[in-house]
Design goal:
- By secondary structure, the chain is α/β, with parallel strands linked by helices.
- About 40% of the residues lie in helices and about 15% in strands.
- The protein has helices at about 15-20, 30-35, 50-65, 75-80, 100-120, 125-140, 155-160, 165-180, 230-235, 235-245, 250-260, 275-285, 290-295, 300-305, 320-325, 335-340, 365-375, 385-400, 400-415, 425-440, 475-485, and strands at about 40-45, 85-90, 145-150, 190-195, 210-215, 225, 275, 320, 345-350, 355-360, 445, 455-460, 465-470, 495-505, 510-520.
- The strands form four sheets. The protein has a five-stranded parallel β-sheet. A five-stranded mixed β-sheet has the order 11-12-13-14-15, sandwiched between helices.
- Helix 5 packs parallel to helix 8, helix 10 packs across helix 11 and helix 18 runs antiparallel to helix 19.
Length: about 525
């Protein structure tokens, strides 16, 4: 009988995970590092559902002196004293989608809970005064300095990042609340702040000029998320069970997990990091699927793409300078930094000569998910019909009937002609780019316009289709380019049937004009 190992899907409380004997990947070595280095004011940015809240909960348990929770962990081996500190944990994720008056009420409610423990003073009326009073009273009553943990600090601001008036008001409220932190240094033991974005220190944390942003430090690249080493060391039994369920080898299953969930890089020399939310759900459900992306695309992201007129082909393989990259939402001049901070793009390369990063989709889950979200802006009818066409097309391919598949594509393109101008080559390229990339959710697809590779390569179990697309030319010219450029060479030794396909788009008909299929 298979061992049932519990995975903490949706559980972000360290004590519940440890006491409930859920699988836990030990991240406490990073807390050991904080202690050894004497770190005091830290900021960490990571995408949503990446384990930030669990790490904050782990810090809370440590500073509350809950030694029993750390047995067998790196911090349990290191720490000998286990001093109990008063811990103020503010989870700002509860303050989303709020008007200014509601945000003030939410903060006051959090302060009231602490005041029930430590009391208050008559002079403390505003939120900043009440925070100052609480820190001092907690120190006086316990004899220990206070630990301040602020999780998802930017949650109240993200959804209004494009609403200047609302953003200014909400930011002012948050700035006022956090304003005593620097002054309270003598009464504070440790301050840890998390968020998705880096709002300018000139705004919210203008007073905390010693806040250390560890988000892009190489040695903290795996502080949240799961590295490949952690996957194979801590989760190997579950990977093996997943492989058995899928009818694949363990190595094949690891490769599939990597293609879907790996590929995040948070610094110049970052480890490869898996999305922990999707990975855990895949292991528990014994099914590889798009869990993170299907859990919701934030409205602020869609608004950002619209604001900067980001096209579907404008996202991949983009270079951005260091100065333009690590900026706050208020100072952005493009959507790329927010796409990175939110986890939809990641660092693929760093060029030290030009001090620039190349950004791209981290993995298949995000790439397909993003394209599905953007596709309705380009393809019509609605997304259900898009998926239906793709299934029909792939079914004909699997039936070895490419001719009929292309007829279906011809008909489909004609049906969306009123949605697009289809008068330029870019329109044509965008539509084909989307179609072939959306197919990538079901089969292996290469789509790269770099020199030396065809426009699209479709890999089926027994056949590889190498396709070249032309605009107002001829299918014959497309086939000739496949031969002239040697596009077949990379696939000639894979033992599969090799088919080259030339396709021409006729702008006057606003669909495919002609095509030619030749077996190599």
């Amino acid at each position: 009988m298979e061992e049932i190992r519990k995975y903490p899907v949706g559980i972000q409380t360290f004590s519940e995970i440890r006491e409930g004997k859920y699988v836990y990947v030990d991240k406490t070595k990073y807390i050991v590092d904080f202690v050894r280095n004497g770190s005091k004011y830290l900021f960490l940015s990571r995408p949503r559902r990446f384990g930030k809240s669990l790490f904050v909960s782990t810090l809370q348990a440590y500073f509350e002196g809950r030694k029993e929770l750390f047995d067998g962990l790196a911090l349990g081996e290191y720490e000998k004293e286990w001093t109990k500190h008063p811990v103020f944990h503010f989870d700002m994720s509860t303050a989303k989608h709020m008007q200014p008056s509601n945000l003030i009420n939410e903060i006051e409610g959090k302060l009231s809970q602490l005041e029930q423990i430590y009391g208050t003073e008559e002079w403390a009326i505003s939120t900043n005064q009440r925070l100052e009073c609480l820190v001092k009273r907690a120190y006086k009553q316990t004899g220990q300095k206070v630990v301040l943990l602020i999780d998802e600090y930017d949650a109240p601001l993200l959804d209004v990042v494009h609403e200047k008036d609302n953003l200014t008001k909400l930011r002012s409220i948050m700035q006022n609340f956090y304003s005593p932190i620097k002054y309270l240094d003598p009464w504070l033991q440790f301050v840890f702040i998390t968020g998705i974005t880096k709002f300018s220190q000139l705004s919210i944390f203008s007073e905390i000029n010693n806040l250390d942003n560890i988000s892009m430090y190489d040695h903290y690249s795996a502080i949240c998320g799961i590295s490949k080493t952690e996957l194979l060391d801590d989760m190997k039994p579950d990977v093996e069970q997943l492989a058995k369920h899928l009818g694949k080898t363990t190595d094949e299953t690891v490769d599939e997990l990597k293609s879907y969930y790996d590929g995040y890089h948070f610094s110049e020399k970052s480890e490869d990091i898996f999305n922990p939310f999707s990975l855990v759900k895949a292991l528990r459900n014994k099914k590889v699927a798009a869990y993170w992306f299907s859990s919701g695309t934030p409205s602020y992201l869609i608004k950002t793409l619209q604001k900067y007129h980001v096209g579907v082909m404008d996202i991949e393989q983009k270079s951005v300078g260091v100065d333009d990259f690590d900026v706050s939402p208020e100072q952005m001049t493009s959507a790329l930094p927010l796409l990175y901070q939110s986890g939809y793009l990641t660092i693929k390369k760093y060029n030290p000569l030009f001090q620039s990063y190349q950004l791209d989709y981290p993995n298949k889950e995000v790439r397909i998910g993003m394209l599905k979200s953007l596709a309705p802006n380009y393809l019509s009818p609605v997304q259900l019909a898009n998926n239906s066409f793709i299934f029909d097309f792939l079914e004909q391919l699997y039936n070895d009937n490419l001719d009929e598949a292309l007829r279906k594509m011809q008909s489909y393109l004609a049906s969306i002609s009123n949605r697009l101008s289809n008068k330029s080559e870019k329109d044509f390229q965008t539509v084909f780019y989307l179609i072939f990339n959306l197919m990538g959710a079901y089969i292996s697809v290469e789509e790269d316009r770099a020199i030396g590779r065809a426009d699209a390569v479709l890999h089926l179990p027994d056949t590889t289709y190498v396709m070249e697309l032309k605009f107002d030319k001829s299918a014959e010219e497309a086939l000739q380019q496949i031969d002239d450029k040697g596009y077949l060479l990379p696939y000639s030794a894979n033992g599969k049937r090799l088919v080259k396909v030339g396709i021409n788009y006729d702008s006057s008909k606003r669909t495919i004009g002609d095509w030619k299929i030749v077996e190599a």
